[in-house]
Amino acid sequence: MTSHPRRGAVVCVLTLVAMALATPALADDIELPPDVAGPVTGVAWDPELQEVMTVDEGGKILAVDADSGTSSPVTFTGPTESVQGLSMSDGLLYIGDIGDPGRSRDLVTVFRVDPASDVTTYRAWDFRYPGGPRDAKALALSGEGRIHIVTDGDNPGIYRAEDRPSRTAVNTLIRAADAPEGVTDAVFLDDGSTLMLRTSTGVELLDGYSWESTAATTYVDASAAESLTTHGENRMLVGDGTYLRDEPIPDGEMVVTPGPAEEPTRSQSPSPSPGESSDPQPEVPNGVAAQNGEEEGVSRRGTILALVGAGIVAILAGVVVFLVRD
Question: Which residues pair with 198 in a beta bridge?
Fold first, then answer.
């Protein structure tokens, strides 16, 4: 009779082992194929097709399979001048032809296509800004499907469309809030109301109602022209060139030195500000975030699997001890 509790404990431990083995691996960096001609100006994740949509400086849009890395073109017949943003909503791809560095365009256009269809038809909405032409590099759709455009340059702002913009007339955008400087991409999180921005300094989360900052990740030694998109639960893809980094969505205030997992580097300590100590600070390994004075690693598949593996070994060792002592 005394062995039953121990056997029950063994069963529980074995159940935990099975659960650990069944835990799916986190996604990792996505390498972009050579078809992507140069830096990307916008990305969007399609959770249904498990593809990342990319657009390069030439306006070519590709759907890249996350597993195989193969790509297929997303074509449509809409005339574009400067595509600077992509956004997915309800399985449809929104294409932001919103770039205007010379501020010479009377209107900008957002197109919508079905990336899963071979049909090249599209829907389009024309917009103008209330104060004249603006340059923009970020497009995002809220949970309710409302179009948002984030402008760059002097007096940057977050602009939104009406609930149901006209497809036959030019729509005037509404300025909702000031935007951080140097925004290059934006996406709403799965809650539909938190806006995530890639800024000149890193990634910032804004409450879509108050437009107050709720979290931020500051990058060290990273390109300021990166694009980003959500990528699964509490994850994001961010990058501008041959690969997109898989990183956690900001939670609190963090400082990160980004880089591909296979190419570790070490960040340099920033110069002290006036009044700060000039004592040298320890170097932070590549991909490591400092939060509240502690070091926190940016998750990568290899690290997670190593930790899970170590946990499983420890659990199995415990099971063996239980059985031997019984």
Answer: 185, 203
Q: Is the distance from CB of 172 to CB of 159 less than 8 angstroms?
A: no
* Backbone phi, psi, residue 157, to 5°: -145, 165
pLDDT digits (tens, 9 = 90+) for 109-142: 999 999 888 777 899 999 999 999 999 999 999 9
Q: Does residue 227 contact residue 30 with C-beta atoms inside 8 Å? A: no
Q: What CA–CA distances, in Å, run from 252 to 135, 231, 233?
A: 30, 19, 17
pLDDT digits (tens, 9 = 90+) for 5-28: 555 554 444 444 444 444 334 447
| Residue 173 structure tokens | 């955008």
- The pLDDT tens digits of the residues spanning 65-83 come to 998 889 999 988 899 999 9
With beta carbons less than 8 A apart as the criterion, state whether 206 and 195 touch: yes
54 neighbors 41 (Cβ within 8 angstroms):
no
Model-level pTM? 0.74
Task: Please name the residues in contact with 116: beta carbons below 8 A apart, sequence gap of 6 or more.
Answer: 48, 49, 91
Per-residue pLDDT of 162-183, as tens digits, reads 999 999 999 999 999 999 999 9
Distances (CA, A) of 231 to 6, 39, 164: 42, 20, 28
DSSP notation for 188-236: E-TTSSEEEEE-SSEEEEEETTT--EEEEEEESS--SS-EEEE-STTEE
